[in-house]
Amino acid sequence: MSFSPLIRQLIDALRVLPGVGQKTAQRTALHLLERDRSGALRLAQALTQAMEGVGYCQRCRTLSEEDVCSLCLDPRRDDSLLCIVEGPMDVYAVEQTGYRGRYFVLKGHLSPLDGLGPEAIGVPELLKRIDEGAFSEVILATNPTVEGEATAHYIAQLLANKGLVTSRIAHGMPLGGELELVDGGTLAHALAGRRPISL
Amino acid sequence: MSFSPLIRQLIDALRVLPGVGQKTAQRTALHLLERDRSGALRLAQALTQAMEGVGYCQRCRTLSEEDVCSLCLDPRRDDSLLCIVEGPMDVYAVEQTGYRGRYFVLKGHLSPLDGLGPEAIGVPELLKRIDEGAFSEVILATNPTVEGEATAHYIAQLLANKGLVTSRIAHGMPLGGELELVDGGTLAHALAGRRPISL
């Protein structure tokens, strides 16, 4: 037997959610139908409103329903610092560290094999943003992956003659990690980047 | 910093999904906004249509968008067999075994501590359905939990004088299980329910 058409359509649609396969979609659909129809209707409305209402900030290009996001408008932030990240989720991660400069959000990282060159990830807009601003330091906070490193290196080269300090986030041991479990590349970075202990 | 209002509303709404906490909801919201807006809009529409369009079959009380579901209308099924389960998901599970009789779907199991008595789970409707039908056997396929057993026992008592065979699904070792891993109660059932090997 098969599910009735509307239930089948809901199960198929639920599979757009990351990590949701056929079985989870079935359970979720029946759970919502049996236990929480008002919650499901609220979810439908929230999805529609967010997908239609949320765009990108014109200045930092993070997700925002305003033309310019609240982070870019906040007058208390440090206008001399610009942090470059690969996506909006990274902005939230960096915010939790207490960083209070400005941001620029790339659309991912350079990936020539996928046809993603500098234009596709928004490098021209980044250069325009830097020229318009009055930054003294640009922090390259792309992910510490091969593609993220290449993207950081590429951008650093473009900025070489602009009279800016260009920095890269540190690589090393994650807090709570164990030396015997960490990969060799990370440990090599941790050794090379060692610092004197100030007592 | 906090997410913008529409994104925050979407994150909150996503938490109606079973097993989705704050972090998964955030990732899901940003994933949909960045990668699959059309899929998210399809999901919103499917949710609305299903929540508003799917009700319960008048005969077997499973989820159905028609007054009487396709299982109840199918003339090729065995009208002498009735299988009683705790929920719509159980119907799909039993269907996969090749069972081709009729169904009746309770609203869960008896749970006096939660105030769920026979009326709340639909026992009166079950008795009406049995009186209207021409069943020779009623299979009690509630879950093998304390509550499910109590529910099966209670219904079996109600049906004692109706001239029906009342049966309970077998308890024993699940296929692929290991004796040393299974609990004592299951193993005791498996021993007590042993059958002669027919060669």
Automatic annotation (TrEMBL), chains A, B:
<feature type="domain" description="Toprim">
    <location>
        <begin position="80"/>
        <end position="174"/>
    </location>
</feature>
<dbReference type="InterPro" id="IPR023627">
    <property type="entry name" value="Rcmb_RecR"/>
</dbReference>
<keyword id="KW-0227">DNA damage</keyword>
<keyword id="KW-0863">Zinc-finger</keyword>
<dbReference type="GO" id="GO:0003677">
    <property type="term" value="F:DNA binding"/>
</dbReference>
<dbReference type="Pfam" id="PF13662">
    <property type="entry name" value="Toprim_4"/>
</dbReference>
<dbReference type="InterPro" id="IPR000093">
    <property type="entry name" value="DNA_Rcmb_RecR"/>
</dbReference>
<dbReference type="GO" id="GO:0006281">
    <property type="term" value="P:DNA repair"/>
</dbReference>
<dbReference type="Pfam" id="PF02132">
    <property type="entry name" value="RecR_ZnF"/>
</dbReference>
<keyword id="KW-0234">DNA repair</keyword>
<comment type="function">
    <text>May play a role in DNA repair. It seems to be involved in an RecBC-independent recombinational process of DNA repair. It may act with RecF and RecO.</text>
</comment>
<keyword id="KW-0862">Zinc</keyword>
<dbReference type="GO" id="GO:0008270">
    <property type="term" value="F:zinc ion binding"/>
</dbReference>
<keyword id="KW-0479">Metal-binding</keyword>
<feature type="zinc finger region" description="C4-type">
    <location>
        <begin position="57"/>
        <end position="72"/>
    </location>
</feature>
<keyword id="KW-0233">DNA recombination</keyword>
<dbReference type="InterPro" id="IPR006171">
    <property type="entry name" value="TOPRIM_dom"/>
</dbReference>
<dbReference type="InterPro" id="IPR034137">
    <property type="entry name" value="TOPRIM_RecR"/>
</dbReference>
<protein>
    <recommendedName>
        <fullName>Recombination protein RecR</fullName>
    </recommendedName>
</protein>
<dbReference type="InterPro" id="IPR015967">
    <property type="entry name" value="Rcmb_RecR_Znf"/>
</dbReference>
<dbReference type="GO" id="GO:0006310">
    <property type="term" value="P:DNA recombination"/>
</dbReference>
<dbReference type="Pfam" id="PF21176">
    <property type="entry name" value="RecR_HhH"/>
</dbReference>
<comment type="similarity">
    <text>Belongs to the RecR family.</text>
</comment>
<dbReference type="Pfam" id="PF21175">
    <property type="entry name" value="RecR_C"/>
</dbReference>
